[in-house]
Amino acid sequence: MPLESASKRELWEVLLTTHSEPAAVFDADLVCRAWNQPLVALLHRSAPLPDTLSLREFVLEDARVPLEARFREILAGAVPAPHNFEVALRGAPPLAVTLLAVTLPEGDAGVLMLGRQRSTPAPDQERHELIALRRALKTAGLGVWRIDPNMSRVLPDPTLLELLGVAPDGEFGAFDQWLEQVPEGELDKVKSTIKDLLTGQKDRFSYRHQFRHADGRMLWLEVWGERILVEGEAIIYGVTQNITSRHLQEERQHDSEALHRALVENPLVGVTLFQDGQVLFANTAASAMLGLLPEEVTGMPLKVLASYFHPEDRGRFGAMLEARLRGDRIPNRYSLRLVPREGSERWVEINSCVVDRKGRPAIQTYVHDITPQKQHEQETNSAIAHSQRRYQGLFDGLGGMVLAFGLEDELIRLHDCNRKAERTFSISREQILGLRLADALPWLDIPPLLEAVIRVGRDHRPERLHRLHLQLGDRILWYDCYLIDLEDDEVVAVLEDITERVEAEIALQRSEERYRVLFEHAGIGLSYFDNDGNLLLVNAAGRSMFGLGETEVRGRSVFDLFERERAGAMMSRLYRTTSARQPLSFADVVPAERGQAELEHLAVPVLAGGEVVGIQLFSHDVTARRRAEEELRSNEQRYRALFEGSQDAILFLDQEGLIQDSNPATRHLLGWNRRELRGRHLGDLHAASRNEQLREMLTSFRRNRKIHYETALVTKEGCELETSVALSLIDPRQGLALALVRNISRRKDAERGLREQVFFLQQLIDAIPNPIFYKDVNGRYLGCNANFLRYLGRRRDEVLGATVFDLYPAELAAEYFRKDQELFADPGIQVYECQVVTAEGKIHEVVFNKATFLDRYGKVGGVVGIVLDLTEAKSIQRELEQSLRHFRTLFETAGEGILLIDRTSLRILQANRSAGELFGYGDEEFLTLTMQDLHPPEFKAILLASFQLHSEMGRSETVELPCMRKDGSSFLARVNAKPVELDGRTCNLAFFSEVLPAHDSTSFEVVKEREGT
Fold this sequence. Notes:
The chain is of the alpha+beta class.
């Protein structure tokens, strides 16, 4: 039986009963674990030996050191085994020993020492010792062989044949037969080693390779030996050991170390180890959270480490560690605040556990940076605390109608509805809850909807209905309906109002019909010819222009439609368009009811697949335009007469602003004649004090191409003259502009007088202690006194031109507007009580005294009003209570979820407990899933591309991806994937950390829209 499967007693019995020479087994600490009687007799020990025996108890001190060194070399594989050595014993003659590497029952490495005395044994004794040695080799899982270079054969010992499952009388031994059992991947290594031995390039060898057992199993073998000379001939001796179990253990240990290393090196999770009041280990992530390097944290006392926590959390950190060491029941996870070296506060979640380190308890912690979650939580709480009313109104004002139906006793009852449904149906939730649908909303008794509700409740599958119409009064409403089954036989229907869309589609259909009619009756002639000159399509205008009448002309040739000469000219132009593959313009004169008509045509080749398949002909009747051009030329003299006879100054300017021409009125206004003004810049006529105004006006003119402004121009005598200038661009291609200048000096004088009068009136109403205002018929404020501004806390520029909807809350503004409309409908005086929000934000009870005033035409020009505050008279205090509470507390953030994923099939091979808590799956359920099952379907393509990219890059990458739990809910998670090798296949170790809480649907939808884009 192999040594790794034998007990200590069995090994002892084998050595005791089979080997006549001294023998013993040592572990890696050089402690003798088993021995036989010949060794005891050799040492002359009569007293019973202890359970363990140290090497130094029976080896001389001078010989112990080199023997221990040789033991350690064999254990480390530094020298080939078996190895022959001579040992000097205490109280006994020197002993020649053979040292072999073996595996102990616990799986540890050890050394088998087989002794042989120098006396020449008898033949029977040699045979007995050979049998004992072979049994010992078999027990140790060893096989011996040799190679005679002259024979080119492997000469195996029976121990090797039994190890490899080969019958003793078989033909096994030739090199070819031996090498056939070695896998192709290992063959070159074995051949190269044997070749070096046969050619004398190596004297010793040691290597591992795979070998196919006779029963088909693949074994891992370790082979070592040496090339020696026996009577002048080279012989290769070797020992083969079956190390399959040890190799598998080494692979598992390697995989375990790879997983542990990936976990410790995870950039998202900090890992620390505490013992004896100090930090024994901290990975890069944990050190980075403190703003330190790992070497700065390692060895740091806990008191110093506590100084990096928030003052309010320092005591709690130490107390939690002490309680964990005592075994007290404390939360597995708790949150604390860190103050790193740079001083910015961070939130971390700590998960601690007690581990054994060198026989004494230590604390291992996993630290997660939850600062984004805490910040998001604080922002959410703040938003909820300050904006509940606004968000509640937004919620009730958005989305479609939501109706919850209950299926009870084969009846459909209405369980709930939202505000949109209440407003749509003019009902209240309390009135309809629990009623049958026929009693609650009789107009909603739509057979398709009711049948779908029953199907969804019965089959438990969502369903969508399109274009349900509902008759409410004289209007038809259209809805798209999505139904989903909930627990307790409840079906929820979300009705999206698509009335506007359906009405728009109906309007679009009607518009298309009108467009077709418009196309048919367009003023431009549209016709389509094929390459052979056959008319395939023509509208009414085209038929009229070509004089074709109402008869059917589709498919007829131009030679059938026109006289020969005209048809030939038309066919020639169509052919030229086809050949040149370019549009062709040409004119044509055709007979008309009143003489002749001039037509302009544009022939455009129609290409398909690179070939001309037809010609589209656009025809315009330009007869009227030609006549208009003639009339324009005939009227040019009349326009010139108007230019010369205008009372206003007219200037023509080029694109640089230089005057090109002027009329006689310009000389009467400014004193310069036409010759003196030609070539001067328009800015030269402006007063120097108006240069900045001129630059602004010219900038506006370049943008808008038309401006009007008032300025001061300088006459030839140097006097400033108030004028009105209207500047227009009349020819964009040449940049030609027209300036019309009018003298407004008298009007300016009148305006100054009017402003003085208005100033006096404003001073007068400002002296009145009550707020006074006046508005035009459109409800826009024309003015007010100072007390009105102070009362509302507004500036004058905020009030002038504004309406009540710009200054007051919506409810009050609507009431003010309604009262104004009543007064405009019945002009006179109006007095009523109402409320006003003052500058302090308080609601005051007031009385409005308003009256209409007339404009200069005798019509109602607006309303003037005075406000009387009645707040102190009534002395009524109204307090608004606002109590905002969280409808629930955010659940405690789970820890880091870790998944081991096969890179080829994307199947989940292993999941930790935090992943189960994060996704809602059990351990067995995870093994049936793939990575794609944890993400929404619309993100699978992005997931696969990202997953493949990170795998090919071969390094750790962190991304944010939407995830989906077992119950179908989604959340955004930060995912870090790291490639690892496990069981000979390539896998990925993925870390999931929730970024956004699942309940924050608004924030999640925003992130989702961004990632999807």
